[in-house]
Amino acid sequence: MAATASAAPFVALGDNAELFLTASVSVSVDDNIYLRSSGEVDDTILRFVPGLDLVFGQNAATSGNVYYKHEFRKYTDVSKQDTDLANVGVNSLYENGKSKLDFGLSYAEAAQNEPSAPGFIVDSNRTSLRAIGEFGATEKTTFGGGVRFEKTNYDSANLTDNDIWTVPLDVYFEYSPKLQASLGYRYRSTELRGSAIGSKDHFLNIGARGEFTPKLNGQIRFGYVTRKFDNGRDDSSLGADADLTYAATAKTAVRLGLSNDYGSAATGASTKTTAFNAGLSTKVDEQWSWNVNLAYRAVDYSERSDDFFQGGIGVDYTYNSFVKFSGSFTRRSNRSDSKINTPVAIDRVRIFEFDNNVFAITADIRY
Questions:
Q1: How many C-beta atoms lie closer than 10 Å to residue 214's C-beta?
Q2: From the centroid of its chain, how far is CA 167?
Q3: Residue 281 vs residues 62, 177, 246, 250: alpha-carbon distances, Å
Q4: Which candidate, 185, 166, 77, 170, places its Cα nearest to that of 128?
Q5: Which residues of the chain have pLDDT under 70?
Q6: CA dihedral 175, 100, 137, 189 (to 10 degrees)
Q7: I want to staple 277 with a disulfide (CB 3.0 to 4.6 A). Which of 34, 100, 257, 281 is the partner?
Q8: What is the domain partition of the chain in residue ranges?
């Protein structure tokens, strides 16, 4: 968790921009760094992430930030996995009371284990772009739309690069001053490299957003989603996308998420995923807070079905406006019903199954 932006800036650039120096130092103990079903490899991982964050437009119609971070990662035992990773981006939000434009552009390098392709560390880089806008057509009607783009390149020849274009379109109707009903359509194009088969998705949906009760707010969408493959096949399913927050008390919040949608694995396989997540966070006082989270994903591939579980608990301590400490424990588990033919029946299942525990301690600095 990053320290709050209330810290005094390293440099004030005029009246409307501030430059912060950021840094994160962490130590994590991982008992299965490759997510293997057998022959697990454990290691202690050290991370140092210095960076810069330029924040502009506070209390102005246009606000945002430009950031650069560079992670230096060292494995205590498996030194071949040592790496350094760049992360750069810009975010901007324009609001004038009637219209809103959210823009973002980023490039991020990653080296992480991947549940959809367990057994090794996946090196990749991702370029992302979003330009999403809303404007009021009438006093009670709002139109929204835009484009999202993600391009992922993998260093391994066994994994499939992809380009994903998404175009969301929504119309919002005011049901009450704090609640809007919605009618939406989302188009998504997935282009895959090599022999992998790309697809086009269409999601028709209805929903609502805003304050459902004085303590419950968020957005929900339900509808019908279809996937048409470039080789002529097609599939369809009920679609869902929900993100809700419940303010249980003044210091405790509960967050719930639900989705049912198509996707693409790092291997290039088409997936259909039903996902659920829940989290609870409590602020004990001005310095201490804690959180717990649970997540479940049922993922259907063409050759197997996986059940992925993740749970975690964390605690945060704010030392002052510049420094924050945090500790966390995360448990991940994957169970699979593989249909891949192998000589030993149990290998059909266990090759994609794993258990993983990670304990981490982090110090974040923002000055």
A1: 8
A2: 18
A3: 31, 28, 11, 11
A4: 166
A5: 1-8, 10, 14, 339-349
A6: -90
A7: 257
A8: 11-366
